[in-house]
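Dear U.,

For the methods section draft, I wanted the exact inputs and outputs in one place so we can describe them consistently. I've listed the two proteins in the order they'll appear in the manuscript figures. Please don't edit the token lines directly; just add comments below if something needs changing.

First protein:
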Amino acid sequence: MKYAYKLKEYKIKEPEPIVLRGFDRVNGKIVPKIMFFVKYSFNKGYLYLEDGERMRLTPLSMKVVEQLIDALQNDVPYMSGQRLLEDAGSTQFYIGGLFSHASNWRKFITMRVIGYYSLNLYAESTYEDYIRPYLSSLEESPPEDKGYGW
């Protein structure tokens, strides 16, 4: 061959995923839940669930997810949807409008209180979590009589 060129091999470096750990409740039992955030560039990223389900992120939705991850790492349980949208530079009025391209976005992001959102890593608290242990502790140890007479 007259024009034989050596082709350079370019290896695309896969970005390191951010692993987010939480728990879920299945049939009354607590099981671990893992979510992965992979950011390929400033405008391409994905959220993956442990079972392989994924959600493609647009540049604006990626900014919202990054804010939710920062909140999670700083022990902030949930953030205002309006603030998330404003800080991301979106003109949408609600989070659902920003994630309308993904039909499964509720599996990744959940509304804890009206207008406040977080990553869907933790199961909702239930009666079994708080009230029942409290009532059982009252039954086990009656209040101590201090002898005040009232």
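Second protein (the one for the lower panel):
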Amino acid sequence: MYSIIAGILIFASSIYICIAINNIYKSRCDYLMEIPRFINFCDGEIAFYKLTIEELYQKYSENYPNSLIIKSIISAQDNINFSKEQKIVEQIIEGIKTLDRQSHKAFFHSMTDMVNLEIERAVNEVNVKGKMAKRLSPLLGLGILILLI
């Protein structure tokens, strides 16, 4: 009796784990998809309005209130899932602070190219690793359930 209950709990937890793994890959992809929008916004605002970095934060958060980028900038805690993406955003912010307005265009273009490569990798990971975890974790839980019975 206890082995059946334990097997069912292991099966349910494996389904929960597969959903969590898939969501990590999807949220990483969503975070990366937002970075080109942030770059284009900064490029336009700096070129036309000559805004400072604090004014950029404020205006971007007004236009996109649920932005993952602004949330990660405001709460400066290190998120293990988004550490690579946060470094990209920090690199963009440092480039905005240190470069003059003439060299921003080339900087933003190079950062957009780099982010597009990361987006391709992230989409590939979602399609390969996320789907694999989604399919194999319940099978693993089912296998353990059968072994316990």
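Candidate sentences for the figure legend, describing the second protein: The two ends are 9 Å apart (CA to CA). The helical segments are 2-49, 53-63, 68-74, 83-98, 104-148.

Thanks,
Y.
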